[in-house]
Amino acid sequence: MAQDPDSETRDELAAVIAAAESGDEAAAADLVDRFSTRLAFGTAGLRGRLGAGSNRMNRVLVTQAAAGLAAYLLEKAGPDAPPVVVIGYDGRRGSARFARDSAEIFAGAGLRAILLPRLLPTPVLAFAVRHLGADAGVMVTASHNPPDDNGYKVYLGGADDGSQIVPPADGEIAAHIQRVADAGDISVLPRSEQYETADDTVVEAYVAATATVAPAPAGANGMRWVYTAMHGVGTETMLRILDAAGYPHPVPVAEQAEPDGRFPTVAFPNPEEPGAMDLALETARANDAEFILANDPDADRLAVAIPDAVAEGGWRRLTGNQIGLLLGWRAARRAAEGGVAEGASLACSLVSSPALQVVAERHGLGFHATLTGFKWISRAPGLVFGFEEALGYLVNPETVKDKDGISAAIAILGLAAEAREQGRTLGDLLAEFDAEFGSFASGQVSVRVDDLAVIGRITAALRAAPPTRIGDAAVVSFEDLAAPVSGPPLGDILRLWLEGDARILVRPSGTEPKLKLYLDVRGDSAADAASRLAALEAGVRELLAAIG
């Protein structure tokens, strides 16, 4: 409390302390939860619930993080010029204040700090790190997390070329942050308001670069589509790029078009979550739309929905794998048409659809399966496209070395407009993909737990006695990627290949108390793949029930 510059969190903490001292057991437990640990700084930076305490996102934690990052950059810097850091922020509660705190701390430490001109999408910050030649970038966002969360995502320039941090940098930065925290009162840290505020030219450069992803063909004329920013920061930048690329403006989901950190119309501002796209679907039905595009609140992810007469409500959301495979196929064709450069490749996370490898091989491209997260995907050698099944796509690696829901939207608009010229739809493109590469289907079984030890017990049981069959399918191979037969460990992931070209990956969630099992099958037709996937899911649930 003594070092907290924020009266709101000081008052919040004083109230909890007073209640705990009066014998309120819930308040005492709350105090323990707030202070029994520190919010960990890792490869995603910081992310957690807003509030007072070392286990919450607040101005004390952000100031310590900024001072620690500044110390790391100064340690790595050469003698010629001070390190340059660019800072962005979205529309979540606290984001603007956290960004200004960071800029003041960076400037006070002797760095050249550049604050983006206003709240903007995460991809604009990732772009700005490279465009401005910065040594690092910070984006204050919690992406699609619940309304009470915020976060602090760190990018590095130089040899990292604007990608998110990976080991050992994350551990080294975390150690510097801990030293700042151990030193005590943050009020003694030097601050300065002599930071720069970028003008709009950096946004204009991002708009111009992203518009080149897919300039509008003639088929875009008259295209009717719906867009939602999910109460986030995507609308302004998206509309500017549409104008630059020549696409018609969408019908907006008006209730969700402007930034609002309360996210009043959605329980969970993630387009993957049930109900999150309900207003977009209503808008699409009312306007006879051809498709829906949705960004998450910081616009680094993209969701797509298309009309489907047999789906409930006449519409269906495409999976992240379906969108990723359409975009990967697009990238592969373009690479082949231009003459495949030596070493050019497609990449996706280990848990994303294996169909991308089939696409890459068919078009003479390399392929890389990486650990989850764009900090790894963006580093794939020769990358021309990368994706992961959680609605993340990297379509323009020369511009942004991170997932980018806006450039992905422009690429989808290009596909839709080209298909429209020939009387086809995005649904037809999915059918054509199946006809060319086979019918792939993906699913997921999640086990949510109250006790994280349950996850360890399940994975230990699988390692101790790998299953020989799952449902009616024999297990062909079982791999423990934490201790592979050859090569370095890849993480706490189990991979099972089954007869009939099916696959299961098992991994603990990195952000939630869940064990996730990713299922992939290949069938002779879409109906066959769906049937095989249903059978595999039933077999997985039987296996989990037997483990108990």
TrEMBL record:
A Pfam family matched in the record: PGM_PMM_I
PROSITE patterns documented for this protein: PGM_PMM
GO molecular function, one term: isomerase activity
EC number assigned by the record: 5.4.2.-
Record bears the keyword Lipoprotein: no
Chain ranges of the Alpha-D-phosphohexomutase alpha/beta/alpha domain: 39-180, 205-305, 320-432
Cofactor(s) the record lists: Mg(2+)
Domain Alpha-D-phosphohexomutase C-terminal: 498-527
Keywords: Isomerase, Magnesium, Metal-binding, Phosphoprotein
PANTHER family attached to this UniProt entry: PHOSPHOGLUCOMUTASE 2B-RELATED, PHOSPHOMANNOMUTASE 45A
Stated family: Belongs to the phosphohexose mutase family.
Protein name: Phospho-sugar mutase
Lineage of producing organism: Bacteria, Bacillati, Actinomycetota, Actinomycetes, Micrococcales
